[in-house]
Each structure stands twice: as structure tokens, then as C-alpha cells.
Design brief:
alpha+beta; Double Stranded RNA Binding Domain; 3 strands; binds zinc ion; DNA-binding; zinc ion binding
Length: 129
DNA sequence: GCTGCCGGGCC
DNA sequence: GGCCCGGCAGC
């Protein structure tokens, strides 16, 4: 019995659901916000991937790379979406990664172990984002 | 309440 | 330039 998994590709999320509507609801509620007037038609669809999952293991077919993936993940499509309409990633819609930075790793009581930027309350340079 | 960090201050 | 903090957004 194979099923389909919808995985959220928002930074540091990775939430999985089993239906298309549920992942879109997750993305809209958790990441994108309530809703916007005149927003891109289906903006949610850019933030998740749909993949089929086999029960035991993936088949050993090495003939083809995965062809026919959804229209997402196309560089042109992405540039078009980001360029014409500064959707997220503009000052105002800032995501938040869940990986720890110097402050949380070492704690306030060991500030001398933080990287310089963290000491100055700037963007961390030791742990990527 | 805490974390990450932009903006802005002081030297 | 180095150094620090207010204040805010995102949890
Ligand atoms: Zn750091």
C-alpha cells in the first residue's frame, strides 16, 4: 500500500501531512499568515513537495532520474514568483529557523564563547541559517 | 518569556 | 572600525 506524503519545505519546518489540503492549510496558517487580498493565487503550493512513499523500500531502478516532478522547483518559476511579487523574504515576512545559535547553545552565562556577531546581537556567523 | 537580529548608538 | 543595547518579530 503506497501513500503520498506532503512535506513542508519552509525553512526548518519539515512538517508532513497526508493530504494536499492539510499541508496547504498548515502552510497558510503556520507560515504564510491568515490570508492576503490579491496575494499570489496558490502561494502555498510553492512551500511543499508531494512525493509518493512505498511501503518497504524504494525500487532499485537506476535507469531514470526522477522525471516528471511538479511544476514547482523550477528556477524560472521561482524567479518569476519572487521577482514580480516580493512574497516572503522581505522585511516584514521573516521566517525563523529552529536550529540553535551561539546564544542558546552556550547560554547567557558563557557569552565569551559566542561568535562575535552573536555577542553584538547581529546575525550569527558560526551556525548557518 | 525567550531567541535572533536590525537599526542605531557610543567610542 | 569595534562594541553594545533597544526594540521587535517569531517562537
Ligand atoms: Zn553565533
Amino acid at each position: 500500500m503506497n501513500s503520498v506524503v506532503f512535506e513542508c519545505t519552509w525553512r526548518g519546518c519539515g512538517h508532513n501531512t497526508n493530504t494536499c489540503s492539510s499541508i496547504e492549510a498548515h502552510i497558510r496558517n503556520t507560515h504564510l499568515g491568515p490570508k492576503k487580498e490579491g496575494d499570489s493565487d496558490h502561494e502555498e503550493e510553492f512551500y511543499y513537495t508531494e512525493r509518493e512513499v512505498m511501503a518497504p523500500a524504494p525500487p532499485p531502478t537506476l535507469s531514470h532520474r526522477d522525471m516528471c516532478r511538479p511544476p514547482h522547483e523550477d528556477p524560472e518559476y521561482q524567479r518569476q514568483l519572487v521577482g514580480s511579487y516580493s512574497s516572503p523574504s522581505s522585511p516584514g515576512r521573516r521566517p525563523r529557523s529552529d536550529n540553535k545559535k551561539c546564544r542558546k547553545v552556550y547560554g547567557m552565562d558563557q557569552r565569551d564563547l559566542w561568535c562575535t556577531q552573536c555577542k553584538w546581537k547581529k546575525a550569527c556567523t558560526r551556525f548557518g541559517d
